[in-house]
Design goal:
The protein has 17 helices and 6 strands. It is mostly helical. The protein binds arginine.
Length: 468
């Protein structure tokens, strides 16, 4: 019965039919009204929406497009609406379609018909483009902080475990000994690049679209630069049609999130493997494991498995948005309302996974003796033996063959026919790789120091931004 009788009560301003009044003679189909509404998810944008509106109305007042008094009245009303929403004193209504109309109606309840002047020189098309840009910019910052925290606990773990030597793997076959800290710091590098990707895409998102109006700009004498400065944007968008119709910056955010999830899934997978009885390289904290409802002995690495599993979900968000954007004709199309749920889902998933991984890692303990035992497998010295022969003048290919044959004969239980080269210890092998990027203690200590310097300049440890 939501819209029943609306044409008979044109003074009723409590439905989004308010914006249909002039043009339409029939009420919206109730099922379509529900289908069309985005308030159930775009309510998240209320802060951005109101801050954007305040900047806009200040500009309208300064430019004399509306009176200074009206501008002041609207601004105060918006501040009150913001407080009301924060205090959960406003009930959002599906009949009011989206966050933009819900807020305008809340403002109308507060200050009366003057509220209708807020939308001068603006359309929901540039309004929603602004809200989403502000939201993505904020989330880039928040994900960046979450990532910095994870990088910091990774560096801590590397430092705590500097003494442990691990078999490094290729093809999941034991290959060469490395420091466990070197292995952990490899993830630091992945997450550093992820951090940089979020920062770099911020530069492209940082453009203020308001003033584009529906698609062509506006006939009013607006000051876009002022609005941009009020909201902390570096510049205004250069083309009104592009500004209301593209969401490439949203796709970029979800791509960055996907890449980050891919890296998280690799780390999660290794922790799952390493904590298995077969490896027994590490112990995951009780607080991040679950039990089995049937097998009393089980201690399952669910936190890691969920991180691994949720990676697919974020990839799905990316494919969903890219497909929504594909072949959209200019300019705004309602398809674009479908940008929000994948974005919000990616934000929640990525931030959730980062929080879990950062909470768990400091409590992950490594089984040093067991790892060192695996790293003492003498076949891991094969490369170093071949290197040694090569450094004495033997062509490396020949040395490779010779050592390969030696290892095969050993595996078959046949004693070596020639006197063996002295087999280097894992420690000697690790410490021999002293160059930048190598696994020697000096190199890894240097890596950790550089990682700490990076985190200092990335401003870790700043308090979380309020409100999220
Ligand atoms: N809820 C809409 C969205 O998210 C707001 C923009 C509506 N614009 C329009 N022309 N119907 O995209």
């Amino acid at each position: 019965m939501r819209n029943a009788g609306y044409m008979k009560e044109p003074e009723d301003k409590t439905t989004s039919d308010g914006i249909r009044k002039g043009r339409f003679t029939e009420a919206m189909d109730p099922a379509f009204a529900r289908f069309n509404a985005s308030i159930s998810f775009d309510r998240r944008l209320y802060e951005e929406d109101i801050k954007g509106s305040i900047a806009h109305v200040r500009m309208l007042g300064r430019q004399g497009i509306i009176t200074a008094e009206d501008a002041r009245k609207i601004e105060q009303g918006l501040e009150q609406v913001l407080q009301d929403i924060r205090d959960q004193r406003i009930e959002f209504k599906e009949e009011l379609e989206d966050i933009h109309i819900n807020i305008e109606e809340a403002l109308r309840k507060r200050i009366g018909e003057t509220a209708g002047k807020l939308h001068t020189a603006r359309s929901r098309n540039d309004q929603v483009a602004l809200d989403i840009r502000m939201y993505v910019l904020k989330q880039c910052d928040l994900v960046g902080r979450d990532l910095a925290r994870l990088m910091s606990v990774l560096a801590d773990s590397a430092e705590r475990n500097l003494a442990i030597i691990l078999p490094g793997y290729t093809h999941l076959q034991r290959a060469q000994p490395v420091l466990l800290a070197h292995h952990l710091m490899a993830y630091f590098q992945m997450f550093r690049r992820d951090w940089e990707r979020f920062r770099d895409s911020t530069a492209r998102t940082d453009e203020m679209p308001l003033g584009s109006a529906a698609l062509a700009g506006t006939t009013f004498d607006i000051d876009r630069q002022f609005v941009a400065e009020e909201l902390g944007f570096s510049r205004v968008t250069a083309n009104s049609m592009d500004a209301v119709s593209d969401r490439d910056f949203v796709a970029e955010f979800i791509f960055n999130s996907s890449m980050l999830m891919m890296h998280l899934s690799r780390l999660a997978e290794e922790l799952i493997m390493w904590s298995s009885q077969e490896f027994n390289f590490c112990n995951l904290p009780d607080a991040f494991c679950s039990g089995s409802s049937i097998m009393p002995q089980k201690r399952n690495p669910d936190a890691c498995e969920l991180i691994r599993g949720k990676t697919g979900r974020v990839y799905g968000d990316l494919v969903s948005l890219m497909t929504t954007l594909k072949a959209l004709p200019m300019t705004y199309n309602k398809d674009l309302q479908e940008d929000k749920e994948p974005l919000f889902d990616a934000v929640d998933t990525v931030r959730g996974c980062l929080a879990i991984m950062s909470g768990m890692l400091p409590e992950v303990t490594f089984n040093g003796p067991r790892i060192m035992q695996a790293a003492s497998d003498p076949s891991l010295a094969a490369t170093d033996l071949a290197d040694k022969l090569a450094s004495k003048g033997k062509p490396f290919r020949e040395a490779h063959e010779l050592v390969g044959a030696l290892i095969r004969r050993k595996a078959e239980g046949i004693a070596p026919s020639e006197p063996e080269e002295e087999v280097p210890t894992p420690r000697q092998m690790v410490e021999a790789r002293r160059h930048t990027g190598g696994t020697a203690s000096v190199s890894v200590t240097e890596q950790i120091a550089e990682a700490r310097a990076f985190l200092d300049q990335a401003r870790v440890g700043k308090p979380e931004v309020a409100g999220d």
